[in-house]
Design a protein that fits this description.
CATH topology of the largest domain: Rossmann fold
Distance between the termini: 55 Å
Order of helices and strands: EHEEHEHEEEHEHEHEEHHEHEE
Strand content: 25-35%
Structural class: alpha/beta
CATH architecture of the largest domain: 3-Layer(aba) Sandwich
Oligomer: single chain
CATH superfamily of the largest domain: Vaccinia Virus protein VP39
CATH class of the largest domain: Alpha Beta
Length: 299
Amino acid sequence: AAPGTERWLILSVPAPPRGEEPMLVDALRRTGARAVERVGDRFEAMLPAPPRDRIGDRVREARGAVRASTTLADPDVRCRWESHTDWAARWRAAQSPRRITDRIVVVPAGGPESDEAGPASRGQPPITIRLDPAMAFGTAEHPTTRACLRLMDARVAAGDRILDVGTGSGILGIAAALLGARRVTALEADPVAAGAARANAAGNGVADRVRVIEIEVRPGRFRPGRYDGVVANLEAGVLVPLIRDLARAVARDGWLIVSGILRSERAMILEEARRARLALDQESGDGWWTAAFVRRGGA
């Protein structure tokens, strides 16, 4: 297949010394990686396939990212192609139903019916999310997604208006609808990811309540006080410039969940939230990552 959205460029880099992994993951994400995972003694970064004449640039960028973020002086960076069909098949084959909370379970779309659905919680029915990530980021395998889902489970209320910023596969917007939100606005800049989110919303029976908008998210694009809750699972470099606008988009007594945050970035993000008059209410950590639930009322 020709380079493009039909396949991924996989960059494989050596694992750094213990303690440097979070910095490496963050650096690779900044080079454009949609996902980074550890495989044996190496890390693999998954990037949208560039034109053939740019592959060398991507390898050099990855090598520079490793050098800048770790003590590895001469990292061995390898690359390969992986078709989307192969990646999706590998993803599905590796997945089993994943329980996130007492009542939220995520299963691969097209797989067998799950017997893992949680029991009724607080008198509420179990929730099963069927997911095909296509070329989009956002699966229950990533700690930031799981952290968001855990925080959302206790916060999204029937009738809420929810904004999902950077929806990716649509998993968080779909979860909001299944948790009772009456309207979810899901924003995504990548047209392929936006298509995946729409398909996943339809597959979960919530297409009438989850509106996916293909748009580049920038400050100044959010209407004040429009949403009861906002979920933003974004890397820190994208999230920080948006926090004040997202805070204004939240209605009185509303809330904001921010994720995609490395623990090393926590203080910076929470300080930005404080400046936006948001107070920390709860956190959900998972490995190197954290998500924070904040609400109006900060000093």
